[in-house]
Amino acid sequence: MRKLLLIFMVGLFGLSYAQKIPAALKTGFSKEALKQKLEDEDGKTITIQEILDQHKGKVLVIDFWAGWCRDCLQALPKAEILEKNNPNVDFVFLSLERSKEGFDKSLVRFNMKEKDNYWFASGWKNDFNNYVDLNWIPRYMVIDQKSAIAKYYAISPDDPEIQQTIDKLLK
Predict the structure, then answer these.
(1) Boundaries of each Thioredoxin domain copy (predicted)?
(2) Of 76, 48, 61, the residue nearest 169 (C-alpha)
(3) Which helix (H) or strand (E) holds 152?
(4) Cα(95)–Cα(99) distance, integer angstroms
């Protein structure tokens, strides 16, 4: 009986924290979201707007992840395949590590040092993540050449809609 109760509780707990598709799929960012600050590997502050400006004119895939996230780590090989198959697409990795030390360690541990990485020093709850309805990671977004959101919500890098969106944008 105890085992059955434990299985029920774990199942209930797991369901309450599963990703939920947002009710509205947004196509742009709010002013507050664009002002959100992150830090790069050197601890230098940068805003979402500045990141988007750096990639303007290119298709951009945003990958939300963390080294403590088992689902994110399982998705990393698939994300690498997506990146390898799309050499004309830029990729940015936004980390939800709990500390700068954790961010630095994860970049080394998971061979992410050569990638475009930023860390939410403000934590999970911030203007950008709240605006994009970030309720779980990993999460992927595709941004078009004009910095508009082309694919708002994907939970796996092998979601066929990511590649379809990229292909459509690159035509």
Answers:
(1) 27-171
(2) 61
(3) strand 149-154
(4) 10
Q: What is the pLDDT of residues 55-111, one digit of tens each?
A: 999 999 999 999 999 999 999 999 999 999 999 999 999 999 999 999 999 999 999
What is the model's pTM?
Answer: 0.87
The strand ranges marked E within 37-96 are 37-39, 45-47, 59-65, 89-95
CA distance 133 to 136: 9
> CB count, 10 Å around CB of 113?
10
Q: What share of the chain is helix, strand, coil (3-state, %, to 5)?
A: 40, 20, 40
Nearest alpha-carbon partner for 128 in 54, 62, 40: 62
Structure tokens at 23: 């009710």
Asked if 19 and 136 touch (Cβ cutoff 8 Å), the reply is yes
User: What length does the chain have?
Assistant: 171
Domains of the chain: which residue ranges?
Answer: 25-170
Fold of 25-170: Glutaredoxin (3.40.30)
